[in-house]
Amino acid sequence: MSSLIGYYSLIFGVGVSILVIFFSIKNFNDTQKLDTKVISLVFLQLLFVIISFSGLILSFVNSDFSNETVFNHSHTTKPLFYKISGTWGNHEGSLLLWLLVLTLFIFVFLLRSKNQPKQYKILTLLFQQIIIIGFFIFLIQTSNPFNHVFPVPKEGLGLNPILQDPALAIHPPILYLGYVGTSIIFSSALAAVCSNNITKMWASHIKKWVLVSWIFLTLGILLGSIWAYYELGWGGFWFWDPVENVSLMPWFALTTLLHCVLVLEKKLILTSWVVVLSIATFTLSMCGTFLVRSGILNSVHTFANDPERGLYILIFLFILIFLSFFIFLIFHKSENNNSKTFYLLSKETSILVNNWFMMYFLSVVLIGTIYPIFLEVISSKKISVGPPFFNKLILPFLIPFMLAMAIGPKLKWIKSDIEDKIYLILFFVISLILSVLIIRNLDINFLYNTILITAAFYLFFITLRDFFHRKYRNLSQITAHFSFSILILSILFNNIFSSEVITNLKINETYQAQNLKINFESIEQENKQNFKAIRGKFIVEDQSGLIEVMQPELRIYNQPNIVTSEADIKTNIFTDKFMTMNYVQNQDYFNIRYQVKPFMIWIWISTILLCLSGCLSLIRKKYEN
Amino acid sequence: MKTKIFSLFLIFTFSIIFFVFYKGLQNTNIYTPETKSEIKIPNFETKEFFSKDKINSDQIFIGSDYYLLNIWASWCVPCKEEHKYLMDLSKKENIKIIGQNYKDNFDNAKNFLINLDNPYDLIFFDNDGTIAIEWGAYGVPETFLIKNNLIIKKIIGPLNEKLLSEIKELTQ
Amino acid sequence: MNILKFLVSVTFLIYCFSSDLKAKNLEIEITKNLRCLICQGQSVYDSDSEFANSVKILVEKKLNEGLDEKQIYAYLKNKYGDWILYDPGFSKNTYFLWLLPILMFVFGGAIILKKVILKKKKL
């Protein structure tokens, strides 16, 4: 029943789209004000999508297996929380969620932009409706979440156990808020170009949307990483997997855009660049959707592969690209360049430098991700592009990038000089000495790592000092740069100082190394709602005599029948201790992995801090110079 | 003029990207290593299945026109499917079938052969799976046809009617 | 001087850390750079498939035989093709892969230089 309502709501939703387009075109030239009818229609559309989405949630909660999506991804013994999160844990449901966010955002956009010119608003709405209709058709044609199964099965196939995790339950909605937020930026930039409305006012208006998308995208990526760390069981948090790269690309574009909009807000320069970036941001989000959903790439996270779906998104993506391209070509009046001057030492130039590096990082990730596809089509050779490639091309460039990040914000608009030269040099020397002390005894490339850590420390100390200095009071910027330095520092230290032991142990056996003792004490079983848990108890003693009890777990899920390994992680502010145990076929021992990972929690904390800095900027009405 | 050339260039680039993605959609994203023809067989040392005697690979592949190396295990379901084809081939005079017992339990493997009959002229152990890597294999079952110490055909996955007749043709 | 105090404590902390470290495990480093053929999105290090476990043992064996990192990569590449290595290397297949981003970087730098320095001369 709820499936039926859900399905018809979708059909009505498309109908409303057509009405919205009709009335907005009629409204375009007739009156001064935006017709309330249009706003009500947009609300009606949102309502239909909400009904449809609720219908799907209801089907999941009631375990209505006459619905194909529910049958494929749910099971009666699943806890209620995961029944609900299972709604968007699959292709069809997640697209419906995507549509929900699309309609929600355009409604909020219309409510929140009262002071903007009417024609601009209508144009934004029209462009957004094109995207919405595209997704409606995609949903109904190729991935209908309300397909019927007959005869009705008694039991569903169940949700993949590795997806049954709290972080992953909220990861898709948050990430989608980020992705879909970029669609508003896209539509609004195109509308601004068409109606010739690129002003400082538009910049500060769109900045809010950029910030919101950026915050959600950052948070979404963070949640994904946390999930990978806790759930995938090998203690990593970032693998340069295509699915991760795909979320990183719009993030780079958004971060660039964020800095650019700041310039535009102040000086009305770089207008074309801002428009191009706005278009690129959404295009990259869509491109990501294509790469992930079509199954063209090979990734840990396998989604349902269906060439028809891939083809649809591909065509839709390129329609959007060409549409925006021609609109830009026809309507855009390029700025009058001659009156604007850039000085080498100015905030504008430093932001250009930021753009330069960001675009470089973006191109590395983009090319690294899609290059295998190109090579295979052109020469039918298959290669893998993995972490070594990205590390080699990104890490060295972080050095000048972080130095620029430290100094750039100190410059003033138009023209300035570097002040406090003594401090800048002093801090550099301190950072250098610190890095040398740290790297000295390690068995790694000395020069390279020292410089890398020096740059990170430098950014850290400079931004830290800025907190206590009244002259630079742009709190959100300092926080953002400060947390970025912590992020890089903790990632670097985590990489350099991590140590691990992989061994096979039977019960009552002890692993002994010069500075570590692991004793496999006992094993116990427990039956939970939809899985059986086998929990090992290990006593870990390090060289200082510190004893830790670790209890990693194996979970044998009933439906689908999959064994997952739950890590036991002991976190404190300096280091994480991470242990997993794995079952070995035909043997009476278990495979044990024990890792010590320093500064792990600081990776999460710094990213949360980064999001907070975005929020700070959002609530702050005016920037001080 | 400059913008025109630039936009034409962009349209061209996007079209190429579209085309490549379109073509890429039709390719499978699952990788299988290429079957390079005529590679020399690897050299390794192992133990014979029944006698547990040490044996070197050059003692195994000597004296017959053709060899069929079959990587199998008692726990592998497709191995049971292909078993009858191996039995069929074991009747041929000019071909010797060598079994490589992959990560198996000896008793289970012996029972497997007792229950289903033994097509192999010789079996050796590969307890940790490293000999399979020497062959360039990555799963079970995999089968290699060998002539004059060269691999002339590599089959990933179980044998079937078609592959059987192909092998027969090659070994005429 | 709050900052100096902080600095000293940070130095001390990190110093404590660096004392109990051991040399990086080469076997782990190598298996992290190998792609598993069974679970194709994962590295050999991450994967628990039969194939990955065998490769781990093989890498250990080869290291004991005295092969270095590069020789092991070459050995596996010979058996399974370029695909198994996560590092695509610099060859005629990958010229564009490595050079295109660098080219973008140079190109971007040139645009900024043009915007900043040439304008300065005009004034």
In short:
The complex is a heterotrimer of chains A (625), B (172) and C (123). By secondary structure, chain A is an alpha+beta fold.
Tell me the name of the CATH class of chain B.
Alpha Beta
Identify the quaternary structure here: heterotrimer
Number of domains of chain C: 2
- Over all CA atoms, what is the radius of gyration of chain B? 22 Å
Helix content of chain C: 55-70%
Biggest interface goes to:
A-C, 65 and 57 residues
State the secondary-structure class of chain C. Answer: mainly alpha
Report the count of strand segments of chain C. Answer: 0
* Strand order in space, largest sheet of chain B: 1-8-7-4-5-6
Q: What's the architecture of the largest domain in chain C, going by CATH? A: Orthogonal Bundle
Largest sheet, strands/sense/barrel of chain B: 6 strands, mixed
Low-confidence stretches of chain B: none
Number of domains of chain B: 1
Give a verbal description of the structure.
The complex is a heterotrimer of chains A (625), B (172) and C (123). In chain A, strand 9 (575-583) and strand 10 (590-598) form a beta hairpin. Chain A is flat. The termini of chain A are far apart. Chain A folds into three domains: 1-159, no CATH class; 165-418, no CATH class; 499-601, no CATH class. With 625 residues, chain A is α+β, with helices and mostly antiparallel strands. Chain A has helices at 2-30, 36-61, 68-73, 80-85, 91-112, 118-142, 166-194, 200-231, 242-267, 271-293, 307-331, 347-379, 387-407, 421-439, 446-467, 475-497, 600-619, and strands spanning 499-505, 510-513, 516-527, 531-542, 547-550, 553-557, 563-566, 568-571, 575-583, 590-598. Chain B has 172 residues and is of the alpha/beta class. Chain B is built from six helices and eight strands; from the N terminus they run αβββαβαβαβαββα. Chain B has helices at residues 2-26, 57-60, 77-90, 106-116, 130-135, 161-170; strands spanning 39-40, 45-47, 54-56, 66-72, 95-102, 122-126, 142-147, 150-156. Chain B has a six-stranded mixed sheet. Chain B is elongated and about 85 Å long. The relative contact order of chain B is 0.18. The model of chain B has no long low-confidence stretch (mean pLDDT 88). Chain C has two domains: 24-87, Helicase, Ruva Protein, domain 3 (Orthogonal Bundle), CATH 1.10.8.640; 90-123. Chain C has five helices and no strands. Chain C has helices at residues 2-19, 26-32, 50-65, 69-80, 95-122. The relative contact order of chain C is 0.08. At the A-C interface, helix 12, helix 13, helix 14, helix 15 and strand 1 of A face helix 1 and helix 5 of C.
